[in-house]
């Protein structure tokens, strides 16, 4: 009814304009105007009729004001039925498993206890043939998948709190930093940046945090360059930072004698006033307080080195290796150390 009313109004308006401007004397022009009006009248219901198809298959006029997510078409689903890639679901029509073989990031969002682990994480841990780094707060993934993955490659479980019942591994991030390499400063600064947590909205702490990062990075370079493998750990970093101000002068003096990047890091700290230097040291101590935990010390020890290839911080793993790493952990008030692996 609305379409008929609109059509009637358009016809009356067009006829009125034709008579008003005297275009009735030109029948051909009058006819063209009427044809254009009728074409517009027909396009309105046709556009409304085909709107669902346009939105489903996409197009220049697809409405994405509130997002563009939609169900995949049959043609798109057929491209995900190969044997390679991450398992993302099952085609409800054909029953075939769907795998994503691309390089884009994947994100699964669902409420708590709705099946994210059972439906996505565990199947991929059991079937994905390449290296996996899995953050596993409850240890469930490690308990279920470690045995099967362990049949084809080593599985390393970093279990600070012993919640999995599996043999724990250890990871020393300083093991693979080459003191003679060109990336030693960048690697140590990356690790220092991970250790010092920049809390959002605390601009007053920005200076102290940045200076604490510089001090920690310098100490890390010194530890990597001068300490034997048994003490080339973050525990040694914490031992240095816990020294009294008078005792802390010793490591700084040795760093000065080393020269180069390590010496410049020591000069940066020694060039500050006593009060400012004490503030920087206090900030570095505060951010590394979690290293006093015996559980953390055991996990970061070099006794059971975990070696992962071609990743930041000298970590080694590869797409050709199905080795897996899992971090079961309960919530602890520390900044997470970012670990990545080649896909």
Keywords:
343 residues; disordered C terminus; mainly alpha; 5 strands; 4 domains
* Strand segment tally: 5
Order of helices and strands: HHHEEHEHEHHHHHHHE
CATH architecture of the largest domain: Orthogonal Bundle
Domains, number: 4
Itemize the secondary structure elements and their pairings.
Blueprint: H1 2-20, H2 27-57, H3 74-78, E1 86-90, E2 97-100, H4 116-127, E3 132-136, H5 140-149, E4 155-157, H6 184-195, H7 206-226, H8 234-241, H9 245-258, H10 260-270, H11 274-287, H12 294-299, E5 324-328
Parallel strand pairs: 3-5, 4-5
Antiparallel strand pairs: 1-2
Written overview of the protein:
- A hairpin with a 6-residue loop joins strand 1 and strand 2.
- The protein is elongated, with a radius of gyration of 32 Å.
- It starts with a helix and ends in a 15-residue tail after the last strand.
- The protein contains 12 helices and 5 strands.
- It folds into 4 domains: 2-57, no CATH class; 77-107, no CATH class; 115-169 and 306-343, no CATH class; 184-297, Helicase, Ruva Protein, domain 3.
- It is mostly helical and 343 residues long.
- A 3-stranded parallel β-sheet has the order 3-5-4, covered by helices on one side.
């Amino acid at each position: 009814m609305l379409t008929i009313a609109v059509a009637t109004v358009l016809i009356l308006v067009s006829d009125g304009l034709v008579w008003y401007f005297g275009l009735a004397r030109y029948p051909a022009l009058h006819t063209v105007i009427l044809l254009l009006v009728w074409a517009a009248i027909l396009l309105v219901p046709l556009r409304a009729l085909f709107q669902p198809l346009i939105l489903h298959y996409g197009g220049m006029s697809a409405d994405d004001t509130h997002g563009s997510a939609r169900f995949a078409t049959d043609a798109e689903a057929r491209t995900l039925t190969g044997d390679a890639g991450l398992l993302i679901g099952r085609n409800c029509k054909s029953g075939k498993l769907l795998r994503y073989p691309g390089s884009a990031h994947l994100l699964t969002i669902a409420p708590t206890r709705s099946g994210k682990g059972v439906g996505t994480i565990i199947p991929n841990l059991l079937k994905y043939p390449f290296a996996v780094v899995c953050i596993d707060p409850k240890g469930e993934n490690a308990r279920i998948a470690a045995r099967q993955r362990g049949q084809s490659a080593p599985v390393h479980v970093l279990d600070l709190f012993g919640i999995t019942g599996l043999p724990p591994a250890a990871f020393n991030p300083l093991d693979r930093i080459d003191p003679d390499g060109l990336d030693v400063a960048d690697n140590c600064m990356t690790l220092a940046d991970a250790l010092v947590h920049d809390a959002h909205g605390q601009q007053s702490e920005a200076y102290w945090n940045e200076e604490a990062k510089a001090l920690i990075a310098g100490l890390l370079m010194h530890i990597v360059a001068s300490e034997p493998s048994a003490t080339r750990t973050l525990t040694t970093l914490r031992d240095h930072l816990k020294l009294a101000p008078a005792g802390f002068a010793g490591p700084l003096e040795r760093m000065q004698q080393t020269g180069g990047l390590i010496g410049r890091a020591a000069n940066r700290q020694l060039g500050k006033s006593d009060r400012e230097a004490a503030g920087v040291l206090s900030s570095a101590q505060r951010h590394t307080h979690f290293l006093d935990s015996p559980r953390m010390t055991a996990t970061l020890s070099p006794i059971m080195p975990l070696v992962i290839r071609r990743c930041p911080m000298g970590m080694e793993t590869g797409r050709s290796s199905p080795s897996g790493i899992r971090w079961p952990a309960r919530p602890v008030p520390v900044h997470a150390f970012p670990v990545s692996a080649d896909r």
